[in-house]
Amino acid sequence: MRPLLPFLLLLSLLPGLSGCGAVTVDDYTDNQPTLVPETFFNGQLTAHGVIKDRSGKVIRYFNADIKAYWKDGIGTLEEDFLFDDGEPDRRVWTLTPAGDGRYIGTAGDVVGEGEITVAGNSMFLDYVLQIPWNDGTLDLRIDDRMYLVNPTTLINESIMSKFGVRVGEILLVISKVQD
């Protein structure tokens, strides 16, 4: 019975160890080009992406036109989506600076406030999104991670979860429309 004790102790430590290596936006502080939300999210943008289920299978495609602007220090992103099945959707984000590389993000289908942090070429956004489900809605936690790869292109990966369990992901590219 004694040889089993070290194994059980090791197993009890594993959940705690998995959180030690969590990636934060601060890991990208020195990365270039620097993402300045007021600069990138300003003007006309397009987005193109896929939604995957929990197994990684692509279940939807979408394209979006985004009109982004800032007034009195507050950002607005008007996102108009068109999905592969013809369904349109619209989300309007309001981005309010909160100091020290942080912003508060709100939208009509977001529960409460989204927390945004920016460092280097990266922006992380954590929020709860209310999506249509059967005859009601379903609240999903969204962990958005955005990376500016050049001055006109941002790559966004999102993990969707419910009760801490990963249920899907979204991958998309956002590009500034060149005049």
Give the strand order of the largest sheet, numbering strands 1, 2, ... along the chain: 1-2-3-4-5-6-7-8-9-10
- Quick one: overall form? globular
How far is the first residue's CA from the last residue's CA?
Answer: 73 Å
Give the low-pLDDT segments: 7-11
Helix/strand-derived category reads mainly beta
Provide the gyration radius in Å: 19 Å
The tally of beta strands, per DSSP, is 10
Order of helices and strands: HHEEEEEEEEEE
Strand content: over 45%
Rounded mean pLDDT score:
91
How can the largest sheet be summarized? 10 strands, antiparallel, barrel
Number of helical regions: 2
Helix content: 10-25%
Features:
179 residues; mainly beta; 2 helices; 10-stranded antiparallel barrel; globular
Description:
- This protein is mostly beta strands.
- The chain is built from 2 helices and 10 strands, in the order ααββββββββββ.
- It has helices at residues 4-18, 37-40; strands spanning 43-53, 58-71, 74-83, 88-99, 102-106, 110-119, 122-133, 136-150, 153-162, 165-176.
- The protein has a 10-stranded antiparallel beta barrel with strand order 1-2-3-4-5-6-7-8-9-10.
- β1 (43-53) and β2 (58-71) form a beta hairpin.
- The chain is globular.
- Mean pLDDT is 91; it is low at 7-11.
